[in-house]
Structure formats: C-alpha cells, structure tokens
Design a protein that fits this description.
An eight-stranded mixed beta sheet has the order 1-7-8-6-5-2-3-4. α1 packs parallel to α8. β7 and β8 form a beta hairpin. The chain contains ten helices and eight strands. It has 282 residues and is an alpha/beta fold. The chain has a single domain, classed as Rossmann fold. The protein is 39% helix and 20% strand. The N terminus is likely disordered. It binds S-adenosylmethionine. The site of S-adenosylmethionine has 27 residues, from α3. S-adenosylmethionine (SAM) binds next to α3. One of its GO terms (molecular function) is methyltransferase activity. This is S-adenosyl-L-methionine-dependent methyltransferase. Pfam families: Methyltransf_23. Keywords: Methyltransferase, Transferase.
C-alpha cells in the first residue's frame, strides 16, 4: 500500500493566534446551547418523544443560521479536493449544502446527499440548484450509519443485493466535518468503506483529535478535553473533538484495504485541527 502520509509542515503561530485558536470553540458552544433551548421551546414534545431527532433539529437550527459563515474559510486543500469528486457520489451530512459549489457538475453523474436534519433539506436543494447540480443532486433524509443508510439506499434501488447489504456502489464518498459526529464511528466508517467501489475514493475534510504526545500541541489537546468535558459533544449534535478519524478509517479497511492514503494534517496548534485528503480503495 503506497502511503503519502499526514505530515505537513506549518508555520508556528504567534501567541495571540494560538490563544484565538484555543478559545474559539466555546463561542460556538454558547450559540449551540442557545439554539438547543430555542428548539426545546418550539418542540418540547419532540425532546421527550424522539431525542435523536430533537438534537438533529437543534443542530439544524444552529447550522441554518451559522453554517454559511462557518463555511467561508475551509482548511487548505478543500476546494481542489472536492472538485475531484466524480461519477456516482455519496455526500455524507451535507447540511444546508454550503459546500456544494465546490463540486464540478461536469464530473459527477449523480450525487446522493444523506442528511438527517430534515429542516436543512429545502436549503440543501436550493444550494444544489445554485451549484449547477440540479436534478443530479438527490437529498435523502437519513444518517450515515448503516442501520439508517442501507434502507434509504435500498428504497432508491441502489443496492445490488439488498438482503446481504451491497458493496461497491459509489465512485466517490465525500465527508466534510461529519465523521466527527456520526454514531458508532467504527461501524459507520466500515459501512461507508463497503459502499465504495474498488478504486473508489473517500474524500475527507474532518476535524480530529490533537495527536499530542505523538506530535501536536499539549495545550490544544487539553482544550479539546476541556470542551468535551463541558458537553461539546452534547450541544453540538454529537460532534466529538477527540476522534482519531484517520486511525478509524485505516482500521476499518484492514491492512490492504486502502491502496493509497493521502491525507494532510493541518492545525498543529489548533483546538480544532483537520485532516484533508483522499483514501483510495484497493
Ligand atoms: C458540521 S455540519 C457540516 C455540514 C457540511 N458537511 C459542511 O461541512 O458544510 C455536520 C452535518 O452532519 C450532519 N449529521 C449529523 N449526524 C449525522 C449522521 N449520523 N449521518 C450523516 N450526517 C449527520 C448534521 O446534520 C450536519 O448537517
């Protein structure tokens, strides 16, 4: 397996820049709590009846308000990476579709956008139109976890063998800031790996755990732990700051599952560092 790995040399930040990187997450957490409370007052029965849907609704309300602003600056490499998505694409957790303009409509034949926050779907479809994807984009209200995704794909006749759970369906799977929050992360990642065709590419732009002490930054790592302790995960729709998504993706594919892993690690001194790049299925 050829692996150009995650090493990426970055300029050290000034003290002021480091401080800003450390303390930016709580500002988002306060906004998330505000939308959580608003959602509780608008849909109190949902809170008790279907808590998972309630949390998707609360996160959806936050994202509808701030998603566009939070998509203005993406990690380096995101734009050229997403422009390479081609063929039949599975777009996991597209939110309101603020990244859809990055797709090259001439390269894709069909894009299935799997988004559990149903309230975001109308804006998602509008953004697909604006991005020139039009009828090539199909929004699906479901989660990435197999228990939700597989029946949704079966309904669209996308599975070759619905009883056994099909494999090798998509040329490209795109995950942007979403694997941090999917439930049962290993199982979900394994399900996505199975859905890729041999030679298919998983494109990832994901925030991950600070690798300290194996590189990374001591304070940024502690900040991640602190924010998780204060309920980041709960308020932010299940988002975990401490997920080692690269290791999870490597693990679920097994030793020779990926023929190429080409990921950059960005943000050595950030509380929210990223991996950006592709994994190519053997
Ligand atoms: C931080 S937003 C990112 C949206 C978009 N990918 C972007 O980067 O602009 C995370 C998205 O993942 C969605 N999401 C949450 N749980 C999910 C799940 N289990 N499966 C798929 N998407 C999920 C959320 O509803 C939300 O739209």
């Amino acid at each position: 397996m050829s692996q150009r790995q995650t090493a990426h040399i970055e300029e050290p930040l000034s003290i002021r820049e480091r401080f800003e990187c450390y303390v930016s997450p709580p500002q988002l957490m306060v906004k998330a709590i505000y939308f959580y409370i608003l959602t509780f007052f608008s849909s109190p029965s949902l809170f008790f009846r279907d808590h998972a849907t309630f949390r998707h609704k609360a996160f959806g309300a936050l994202w509808a308000r701030y998603g566009a602003a939070m998509s203005e600056e993406m990690p380096e490499g995101t734009i050229p990476l997403i422009a390479t998505a081609q063929g039949v694409v599975l777009d996991i957790g597209p939110g309101s579709g603020t990244q859809l303009h990055l797709f090259d409509p001439s390269k894709v034949t069909k894009v299935y956008g799997v988004e559990p926050a149903a309230d975001l779907i109308p804006e998602l479809i509008r953004n697909a139109e604006k991005a020139g994807l039009g009828t090539k984009y199909e929004a699906i209200v479901a989660g990435a976890e197999s228990i939700s995704l597989i029946p949704a794909l079966a309904k669209r006749n996308l599975l070759h063998n619905p009883e056994k759970g099909s494999t090798g369906i998509f040329d490209t799977i795109v995950t942007i800031r979403v694997l941090c929050g999917v439930p049962h992360n290993e199982e979900t990642a394994a399900g996505l790996f199975r859905l890729l065709k041999p030679g298919g590419r998983l494109l990832v732009v994901e925030h991950v755990v600070q690798p300290y002490p194996k590189g990374g930054d001591f304070i940024a790592k502690r900040m991640q732990q602190l924010y998780m302790l204060f309920g980041w995960w709960y308020w932010l729709g299940g988002c975990c700051l401490d997920r080692d998504t690269e290791q999870i993706l490597r693990k679920v594919a097994g030793k020779d599952g990926w023929k190429e892993v080409n990921l950059k690690f960005l943000g050595r001194q950030h509380a929210i560092p990223y991996i950006v790049g592709e994994l190519v299925k053997a």
